[in-house]
Specification:
Layout (H helix, E strand, L loop, with lengths): L2 H14 L25 H9 L14 H4 L4 E9 L5 E3 L3 E5 L2 H4 L8 H6 L1 E8 L11 E8 L6 H16 L14 E5 L8 E3 L2 E5 L2 E5 L1 H16 L7 H4 L7 H9 L19 H13 L1 H8 L3 E7 L10 E6 L2 H6 L6 H7 L2 E7 L5 E7 L3 H24 L18 E5 L7 E4 L2 E6 L1 E5 L1 H9 L7
Parallel strand pairs: 1-4, 10-12
Antiparallel strand pairs: 1-2, 3-9, 4-5, 6-9, 7-8, 11-17, 12-13, 14-17, 15-16
Length: 456
Amino acid sequence: MKKLEVIAKLLEMGKKSIDKKIIDFLPNESTIDLMNKKNKGLIGNSIQEHVFGVEVNNKSEADFLDKYGVKVELKVVPLRKNMHDKFLVKERMVLNKINYNDLVKEDFKTSKFLDKNSLILVVHYFHDPNLEWFNNKIIDCYLIDLVNIPESVIIEGDWKLIKNKVVNGNAHLISEADTNILAACVKGAKSVETSIQPFNDKKAKPRAFSFKQAFIQRLFNNSYNIKKSKKHKLNSCSHNPYSSFSFNQVTKILYNYVGLNLSAFNKNNSFAKNKYKIAFNTFLSQNNESLFCFLKTADIKIVVKTLTEKGNIKEEINTNIDLIFEDIIENDFEDSIVYQELILKKIIVIGVNRNYDIKKIYWFKFSDRTIKNAMTVYRDTSDKLQLYLLKNKFDEKIKFISSSKQDLTIHIRPHAKNSNYTAKLYDKKTNITKQEFWINKKEMNEFINDDNIFLD
């Protein structure tokens, strides 16, 4: 069978598993411990072995090479649902481990990274915290061709940036926030293990290549919407062939909008609380649809805020990231939703006045200091939630770090004014109003006043 036919067969096998539960593939005589919740690899291993018939192994080559003779890697990625019942990619896609000594000798085109990951078969399942792992359902399956996707140039640039840090003796300074799509994530957030780097005596954290959550979200949206379009009318971005932009390209385009008046794009929304954001989004969707669609799932967060006469941000900054209690209890900070969807993102602030004039545009990303602050808030929240779960008194409330006065970069505030809009914890109703993460305006204004993030 020819290579393309084999790949098509694998894709077909994956698509046939859609809408089925994991347990539907397990043999009756399966020796898998169905009640084992601690083994995070159980779902991926079960899909690899029982959907595709490939035994789990620790070989360095692509997963399907031995049995099918093609260099195709399998990646099983969980989805979650937000408050609007929309599927969101739950975490980054972790790829192969980085060997610092080998990396500095490689060229991208012949690298171990591209050799193993040039073709990736992705299977998404819905991670429902209220179900046993084997009752989770497969949602989608698609193929990533790294050589031919629009983002291939950006991915190559990210790979070279990571390599250059190692070449310059700075493997110990690598951060996931350095890059756009391809990152170098820490292997085991709590691990004290270190690795030798070739051009510096300082030990570095062991890392693996990974695709950021926003990139996988964009690929999932495009794949899932093709299936969904047969039943539902989609918005323009669902049909728009997406373009890719580097961060520098995004900032240059947006900076050209300084001085623009958005009042003409605020029809019927003059009393909306987020009226300035609505006006900006309407303008961008009508005048640069490609960028508008790209930003929906990019590793960039756009915030539109009103400024004081002195040019400072007037209000605390809502991130629109809900506290998912189960995620905070189950995951370390660096594996959490807030880390993926906020801490690693570059934040662009569109500063407007009351007359809808765009006055300034800034960009900001979390520093080592502000990441430590955010981690303090996250761990405090996790500790309180675990104690709350242990006490089993769901009629009580929790006092989170809810004020910017504590100078911890972020804080937690209710999602809704209505106190009856309460959250659930493992499908149990609580007396806690739904909460969101907020960025302290003081933190952002300090950067603005220092001219650290003004785009000029």
